[in-house]
Description:
The structure is a homooctamer. The first copy, chain A, is globular and about 50 Å long. In chain A, about 45% of the residues lie in helices and about 15% in strands. In chain A, about 70% of the residues are buried. Chain A is of the alpha/beta class.
Amino acid sequence: MSPSNTPLVGLVMGSDSDWPVMKAAAQALEEFGISFEVDVVSAHRMPEEMISYGKQAHQRGLRVIIAGAGGAAHLPGMLAAVTPLPVIGVPVPLKHFDGMDSLLSIVQMPAGVPVATVSVAGARNAGLLAVRTLAAGSDEHAGLLRDKLVDFQTELASAAHAKGE
Amino acid sequence: MSPSNTPLVGLVMGSDSDWPVMKAAAQALEEFGISFEVDVVSAHRMPEEMISYGKQAHQRGLRVIIAGAGGAAHLPGMLAAVTPLPVIGVPVPLKHFDGMDSLLSIVQMPAGVPVATVSVAGARNAGLLAVRTLAAGSDEHAGLLRDKLVDFQTELASAAHAKGE
Amino acid sequence: MSPSNTPLVGLVMGSDSDWPVMKAAAQALEEFGISFEVDVVSAHRMPEEMISYGKQAHQRGLRVIIAGAGGAAHLPGMLAAVTPLPVIGVPVPLKHFDGMDSLLSIVQMPAGVPVATVSVAGARNAGLLAVRTLAAGSDEHAGLLRDKLVDFQTELASAAHAKGE
Amino acid sequence: MSPSNTPLVGLVMGSDSDWPVMKAAAQALEEFGISFEVDVVSAHRMPEEMISYGKQAHQRGLRVIIAGAGGAAHLPGMLAAVTPLPVIGVPVPLKHFDGMDSLLSIVQMPAGVPVATVSVAGARNAGLLAVRTLAAGSDEHAGLLRDKLVDFQTELASAAHAKGE
Amino acid sequence: MSPSNTPLVGLVMGSDSDWPVMKAAAQALEEFGISFEVDVVSAHRMPEEMISYGKQAHQRGLRVIIAGAGGAAHLPGMLAAVTPLPVIGVPVPLKHFDGMDSLLSIVQMPAGVPVATVSVAGARNAGLLAVRTLAAGSDEHAGLLRDKLVDFQTELASAAHAKGE
Amino acid sequence: MSPSNTPLVGLVMGSDSDWPVMKAAAQALEEFGISFEVDVVSAHRMPEEMISYGKQAHQRGLRVIIAGAGGAAHLPGMLAAVTPLPVIGVPVPLKHFDGMDSLLSIVQMPAGVPVATVSVAGARNAGLLAVRTLAAGSDEHAGLLRDKLVDFQTELASAAHAKGE
Amino acid sequence: MSPSNTPLVGLVMGSDSDWPVMKAAAQALEEFGISFEVDVVSAHRMPEEMISYGKQAHQRGLRVIIAGAGGAAHLPGMLAAVTPLPVIGVPVPLKHFDGMDSLLSIVQMPAGVPVATVSVAGARNAGLLAVRTLAAGSDEHAGLLRDKLVDFQTELASAAHAKGE
Amino acid sequence: MSPSNTPLVGLVMGSDSDWPVMKAAAQALEEFGISFEVDVVSAHRMPEEMISYGKQAHQRGLRVIIAGAGGAAHLPGMLAAVTPLPVIGVPVPLKHFDGMDSLLSIVQMPAGVPVATVSVAGARNAGLLAVRTLAAGSDEHAGLLRDKLVDFQTELASAAHAKGE
């Protein structure tokens, strides 16, 4: 896993077995030229590093966190509890329940601690949501990203349109 | 429903019957001093206005959209399809299925069009997620919001702590 | 995908990856000699063309729309919002949840905007329902179709009967 | 329950306890001036009358059947098996499972025998779908209905719009 | 499918594609020397023969009916509506929903019309339940069957016990 | 709870809190003049008496057992494991999950040990299924019961028919 | 909430709104004379205190932890991640999904970090499981508890038996 | 299956087909040097041996029972009903429903009879929970186990950490 330099997005997952799902987030970030870092940060196996990761994230310059986890998927919610950054949660489907357990464990957060949840295995959308979040800013980079997103939507339409012909 | 001036957040819902759920988002935005507007924008009953709303949102200066809907809840996803802004979806529970239909209709978006989904009836968290999104920017306002969010988390801890005594 | 001439039925789907499911609708229409057209019309990737498609459908002479979609399946409901034609929705099962998300996203429409939903992957029945709809008219063609449907049911019985011997 | 004269739509239900849900279909038909009849026709308690009802429906001049049922809701599917008419099924929620059993029992029909299923307790939409079906014909009445449906959609938009002000 | 002579049990299914599941019922009946007949009787494709089959079943000497069906599985319930015999329903799993739709369509019968439902794909247990039903009689054959069932349970225990060693 | 004399049916439940649901079984048996006994027999709180009850049931002259239980509903299956009699299971809904846990715990029995499961809270149908089981015998009483059941079905049809007028 | 002295069991919950459910655990512990402490320890609102609580628990002499939480219920699993003590998780049902989200978030833990999960709202059983855990020891107190548990089971049987008379 | 000598843990399952899932419990026990025995004990096929096993377990020196079962999974709950020992239940997924039936049948126990339930197919965690239970005692062995568990958690963190590099 190759982190980019001066990352704006922290892309973390509970286990390296989540990577085949999560790499689609990395790819989306690359398409938009967003620098990011990739890490295994397990809520259950390295809880204290996980807390540290979350607490320091905004101090290190990260502006969005994408967290993937499966089953009793605590990572996105626990990070959201210790960072002021927006946390995007990706429910990773495990062997049973087709990701329904992952989805509910991530999305059903109590009032006060939001997680921006995407679809089961929806890592590409997590990456795109991170781009939209960065594009929601007021600086020049945000403006450029917003333009890129509008172009991206135009391309989606063209590609979809082409398939119907 | 009283919109604030020069809104940064567009708070929309498919029906005014969603307001008892959605007003918690408005309240969270007010707590953080975020200007916002409130509208009924129905994907199914006024689809063209809905498309227009979505297309013009970022041009009008909105930076985040919060959309609540129930049942076959198409509003958040349709808005996400026509705006480059981050769209936060709130699954509103209707009379049957306890919001499960709303949740799946909102969260299971196809690759390319993300919706940042919060919990069933989780409008307060939608508001807080909008705040985090605005706080992820690089300008001064973002920095102030980020500090407020850190304070907010400290207060959550204090309040929770107090209840245990 | 080969559309017939002067189509009565518009057969659309959110993605060409839905075709392996949806082609059974085309086949049913062909068995009854119903002219139809086939298109990829994505609610999420080409929302404005989708709205146009729906708005013009009855003006172009279409009398029934069959729409297949998966996951947060917004296509059938959005078309139903902009056309006075009956819209038949086919829940296409995607990789997770076995089509339950598709089913709920299609069937749980709000009052005012009906979608005639068939079973998960039930495209053949969507085609047959379109035939029944056309056969419910008062003209000669409808009468002929109705007779054909009665014959079709007799054949179903014979075929089922033969299997038991 | 007061049937209209020369009915075009047969509105049936498995039990008179379904009437509080099903009457919204009657009301929708009345709004569009569609003549209809109302009957209790139980698949489980009067199976032979049910078969007769279905077989004679199109001979008596009915052009659409709306059938509501709950639990192991067999009525819509059994009628669809013996009539060439389009059958619209309304899943009536009973005391347990919130209508999920009714929905699956109605929508998951085998290939060859379609039921046009609407949402749980979605009787109003069943009525509107019957209107759309009649409006899909080629005669003058159909054309008038189609115009009315377009007006109806305009009114939906106006009403929804008004709520946002 | 080879029916025995002077059958006591009618083993029916909605489609011959159910036979791979349903044959385990036949095998259980054979193990206990119960005569039975096998037929394809489809509620949806041959509804009138189905009604006839059910109405005549007890007159022809059948004493138990086993009916397997999948999806909107109407066969067991419809047979139960027209026969005074005990009807045992086997939910056959189809391609989607893992048999949950079949189970709910069979088990959730309204008061007045019971179906004795076994597990998803539980055809062997359907056969054994037919044996228990016949063994609940007061005649000599019933007594012999009851003794056989007690022996059968002893053998189950022995076989299970042997596996643990 | 008043047992009848020389009972043919054993009506048991895991807790006396199940009685409001289960009494409908008693009432159905009374309507058909079937003698029965009522007992609280808990699989979890009095497992050894439960085993004894099951083992002796057929020796005491019982010919059918009806067992109601909720949650992790083990009573019907455990009785089925120790008696050769047909056991009818009634899923009693508890405070959570609307009886889905009770249903799955009762119906999903392993091969070899069938339980005849009825609908959630379907105690009346459990009583009627016991009647059908006794009516499946070859003696005079069975013949009389069978005639009564045919009459009963005729009355159901009349009553349903009357409601439609 | 009144903690006992020199506690063996730590009874914690994510919010004081969980107390109406969780107090049944306290009552069970009191019945067996087990000393315990009660605290609000929120995984999401006071994550660092929560980690500290878990890490110090066995050092302070606690021997079992009971943790109740609802929705995306992270408390039991996070405590289990930082303590070597057995952690018993109680899924608290919130307003939606009837505790299914709480159950899956607690029980579906990854390999390496077990949580002993009881039924939805099953706090009394959580207390009794803590007693059984303490009774599984090798010291005199454990032996006395084990005897008490055997007596308790005898009383359960007597009470259940009495209800059947 | 090779039992160790002087077992502290009884590892049982309803069928030897459960062994591929359950062996992970055995492996976890071996890693911590816990003696255990392995047996097939079927609630449904050998109910009386099952009761005996449960009643004698603590008298034979067992201190924890691990029980795996699938479908209508009665084994863990029935053992819990007859032993004062902590019983750990492992929901074994069978061919349908992905273990949801197994999970609900095990976890939804009535008040008075707790089962410590782990995740679907979570046998490794069942073994680790047994270790934690033994480590909760007050004797020297418990202390050593507790230290081992702390080391084990440190190793989990190291292993997880290494994967991120």
